[in-house]
């Protein structure tokens, strides 16, 4: 029987995942769409729509919901969806505070439906191949990991809208870095124990404005009306011209140098896991180029990979030997792993199987980023419980 989906939140992620992934699957269909601001209803002709998510939950033809609303709305919608006995595919991160994450944990304690969280990289072929190398003992026991996320579209993606305020996102460690941090949790297969982090806002927000303009910018400044948008490295117009980035015609364009911005634009996080494995992670949201790079050290060798070359290289510690694997799979969805993630969810609905990205793993991922932000704020190492 085809699974009837309700889509809640039709912003950048929601409508694209619905159109390119859910609608393309033969095992499910969309019964109803919902967006509080009526965004992208026109992309779903013939499908009933609403601005109230409770109407989706009350629809008996909706078996499962895909929740793609801003991070600080997830707990309310997840908890209501569970009460209505809907299967739940919720976007990452689970929520933006320890309290809200715990509310979800308590509410889902006896939940019998499928629950999966949008950590797509766990489903992407490159990352899965690395996991299989690690399980097979290709570099022996895993001891140390170094990860760097270079994001050249950080201003565009995260500093124009709700992502830029801690009130609605807590930090970009939770919003963006969480993908890579979750992958490390999965590879290490243990809980983070000690977390020490540093973060700073240096290039966007008020510090960026003082360097660029010598003063703060007006709170209502937008790229479309700004007198320097022709030369500004962060203007929507230049990002399109120079980097060919335009994720939607109506992309928000509030100035990325606005003083209300209070999330950091670069961070360093160090983690010691309960099994002794150590992580050094860095996120840069004003990178010059895109790359997610991993370097993993084991007792028998080293493994390096990145998602630009799409290559994995394993160096043997004893012998002068390397093994290289090239991932040639062409991803055609919004994010690598989108299709496989949906497949895992469908299987969870049909068979009761526990998804690869599940409640426990997404709680661990969220709390790691929340603890890292606490370490930055309190200037001390945090011991995770
Ligand atoms: N897994 C991934 O790779 C990935 C990629 C992008 C975004 N995301 C996640 O998807 C979620 C949405 O991100 P986005 O970039 O699409 O944000 P967005 O701001 O573009 O879209 C959010 C949409 O939700 C709607 N909305 C807000 N509150 C609502 C409510 N109570 N009920 C119904 N609709 C509501 C808004 O009107 C908006 O259209 C976030 O949690 C984000 O972290 C995940």
TrEMBL record:
Pfam families: GFO_IDH_MocA, GFO_IDH_MocA_C3. Residues 127-303 form the GFO/IDH/MocA-like oxidoreductase domain. This is Gfo/Idh/MocA family oxidoreductase. It comes from Candidatus Enterococcus moelleringii. InterPro entries: Gfo/Idh/MocA-like_OxRdtase_N, Gfo/Idh/MocA_Oxidoreductases, GFO_IDH_MocA-like_dom, NAD(P)-bd_dom_sf. PANTHER family: BILIVERDIN REDUCTASE A, BINDING ROSSMANN FOLD OXIDOREDUCTASE, PUTATIVE (AFU_ORTHOLOGUE AFUA_4G00560)-RELATED. Residues 4-118 form the Gfo/Idh/MocA-like oxidoreductase N-terminal domain. It comes from the Bacteria.
């Amino acid at each position: 029987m085809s699974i009837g989906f309700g889509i809640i939140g039709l912003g950048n992620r929601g409508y694209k995942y619905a159109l390119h992934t859910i609608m393309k699957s033969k095992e499910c269909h969309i019964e109803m769409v919902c967006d509080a601001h009526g965004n992208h209803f026109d992309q779903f002709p013939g499908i009933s729509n609403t601005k109230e998510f409770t109407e989706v939950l009350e629809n008996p033809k909706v078996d499962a919901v895909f929740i793609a609303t801003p991070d600080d709305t997830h707990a309310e919608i997840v908890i209501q969806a569970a009460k209505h006995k809907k299967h739940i595919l919720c976007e990452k991160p689970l929520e933006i505070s320890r309290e809200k994450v715990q509310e979800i944990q308590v509410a889902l304690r006896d939940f019998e439906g499928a629950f999966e969280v949008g950590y797509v990289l766990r489903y992407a072929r490159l990352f899965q191949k690395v996991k299989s190398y690690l399980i097979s003992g290709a570099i022996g026991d895993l001891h140390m990991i170094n990860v760097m996320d270079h994001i050249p579209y950080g201003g565009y993606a995260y500093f124009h809208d709700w992502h830029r305020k801690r009130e609605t996102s807590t930090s970009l460690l939770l919003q963006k870095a969480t993908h890579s941090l979750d992958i490390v949790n999965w590879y290490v297969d243990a809980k983070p124990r000690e977390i020490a982090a540093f973060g700073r806002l240096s290039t966007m927000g008020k510090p960026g404005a003082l360097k660029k303009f010598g003063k703060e910018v007006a709170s209502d400044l937008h790229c479309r009306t700004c007198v320097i948008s022709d030369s500004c490295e962060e203007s929507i117009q230049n990002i399109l011209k120079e980097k060919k980035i335009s994720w939607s015609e109506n992309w928000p364009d509030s100035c990325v140098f606005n003083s209300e911005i209070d999330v950091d634009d670069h961070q360093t996080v160090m983690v010691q896991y309960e099994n002794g494995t150590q992580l050094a992670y860095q996120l840069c949201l004003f990178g010059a180029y895109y790359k997610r790079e991993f370097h993993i050290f084991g007792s028998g060798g080293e493994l390096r990979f990145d998602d630009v070359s799409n290559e994995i290289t394993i160096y043997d510690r004893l012998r002068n030997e390397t093994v290289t694997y090239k991932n040639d799979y062409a991803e055609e969805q919004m994010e690598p792993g989108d299709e496989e993630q949906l497949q895992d969810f469908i299987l969870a609905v049909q068979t009761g199987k526990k998804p690869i990205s599940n409640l426990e793993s997404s709680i661990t991922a969220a709390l790691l980023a929340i603890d890292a932000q606490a370490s930055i704020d309190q200037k001390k190492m945090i011991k995770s419980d």
